Fold:
Amino acid sequence: MSLYYLQKIIYQLNRDEHVRQRYEDDFEGLLVGYPLEEEEKAALRKPDIGLLYVMGVNGQLLMHYAALRGYEWNEYLQSMRDGVAKYGSVRRGAGALSEP
Amino acid sequence: MSLVFAGVCSHAPGITGRYARADKSLRESLYAHMDIMRQRLEASRPDALIVVAAEHFANFFMDNMPAYCLGMADSYEGPVEDEEWLAISKAKVPGNAGLAERLVRAALEDVDLSYAQEWKFDHGVMVPLHFLTPRYDLPVIPANINCQGPPLTPLSRSWTFGKALRKACDAQPERIALVGTGGLSHWPCTPESGRINEAWDREFLDRWVRGDYQGMTGYSDAETYRDAGQGGFEIRTFVCVAGATAGCPREVLFYAPIPIFAVGCTVGIAQLDAV
Structure:
């Protein structure tokens, strides 16, 4: 699981207008440039916001991707709740901290 | 001169962006206390304002994540977010590259501090500035503590960073103000957005007011995450200001959980002239 690159493509979509233009012109071509697993690519394509959250994408990044894909705020929050219900707890990242 | 003002405040985007959905009396009380902070800041006649923030992937990402960074530019722009979402118009904010470079050189004697000559402000800086320097007429020097992408700097190091900043400020001829801005407990952008642990917040603020170093720096990240959410990592900014004002009396002017703002909204000030 390549959480780093999954977050990186979302970070660059949020902050780099050239990357966002590439997303609009050729999303599949953009995805080729990141070493992502098929499950991650599928979650980005769909988009499956709940699965991306469970995979460990930081909410400070994910909320902007959700907005880019047309989710309004409450829909975004509900998608994460649905994701946890469907896929289980957050697997990696800051949201998976548990050991004191 | 020296450090002439120090305080802390919240920066949640809802404070400006979702103002219409908040309880009116709470909201107006928060705004009134931010205005008191502005008046005290102005009364200190600062030449520059350091904002110690906890940015949210506006400039820094895990490809090269500094634990501590200071902005070293003559101007900045923000917010990076949608203007309507944040209800703050895009603006150019003056900086002071020369003073910032002197601060970096001085602080490097005590801490390993990065610098950045480009920096875009997100809500973490723009919300405080909206209230404290609404005309953007005071040069700002942004500082950042990584509070987003673990592994994070220990809380004790945030205190040390504050002490280093204080020493660096006191070595400059300019009058310098310092504002730390962050959560306390909050769960921003998560399924629990809006949750606030008021008891945890009040205990932390009690430690902040008393200058309780052990209490403020004793939380593990797992404990903070459990009790205060991912947003709780931002207490590093408050700990930094406590380090910069060690030995000074501190007071919390305002604290109230405002769920639609997704945080316990806080305004606090240190009394530098009391020492």
User: Anything to note?
Assistant: The two ends of chain A are 24 Å apart (CA to CA). Chain A has one domain: 3-87. The mean pLDDT of chain A is 92.
